[in-house]
Amino acid sequence: MDRFGPAQRSQIMRRVRAQNTTPERAIAHQLRELGLAYRMHVRALPGKPDFVLPEDHVAIFVHGCFWHQHTGCDRAARPQSNKAFWNRKLDRNIARDRAHARTLRSLGWRVMTVWECRMPTADSLLRRICRTVGGNPSRG
Ligand SMILES: [Zn+2]
How many C-alpha atoms does 27 have within 13 Å on its Cβ side? Predict the structure, then answer.
C-alpha cells in the first residue's frame, strides 16, 4: 500500500523526475562520470548551449523532440488544432536552432545535438564526443 494518495504520489513523482532525471541532468551526470570538464547554459554563446566542453570547443544541445522538432520522431508530431500558430512557432524554433548552429560553427565550435527520445549511455555519449572532436576529448 502506498502511504500517499494518488494525487500526492504523482506530485512527488513529478518532483523526483524534475530534479533527478531530466535529460540535462542525465547528460551532466554522464559528463562527470566520463571525467570531462564542462560548463552548463553558456549565455555568452549563440543559442545558450546546454553544455560546452571548453577545451575541445564542443557545444552540446539537449533538445526536446517536440519543441525542437526532431525529424521523423513520434514526439515531434504537430498539433492538429491551431495549425497555423503551431507551424509558425515550430518552424521558427527550427530556423533559430539552425542559425545558432551555423553561427557556432563559424566561431569554431563543433555542435552536437542530443535528443530526449534517444538519451545516450555514458559510453555512447563518449563515442559521439570522440567522433565530433576527431579524437579523444581533453580530460578535466
Ligand atoms: Zn525524438
Answer: 28
Cα of 3 vs centre of ligand 1, distance in Å, is: 36
Please tell me the distance between residue 138's alpha carbon and the centre of ligand 1 in angstroms.
29
* Residues surrounding ion ligand 1 at CB below 5 Å: 65, 70, 73, 75, 115, 117
Place of cell 579524437: 135
Residues with Cβ within 8 Å of 31's Cβ and at least 6 positions away in sequence, in order, are 38, 51, 53, 125
Residue from 54, 53, 64, 73 nearest 126 by CA: 53
**CA 4 to centroid of ligand 1, rounded, Å:** 33
Burial class (CB in 10 A: 0-12, 13-18, 19+), 82: exposed
pLDDT per position as a tens digit, 24-46: 999 999 999 999 999 999 999 99
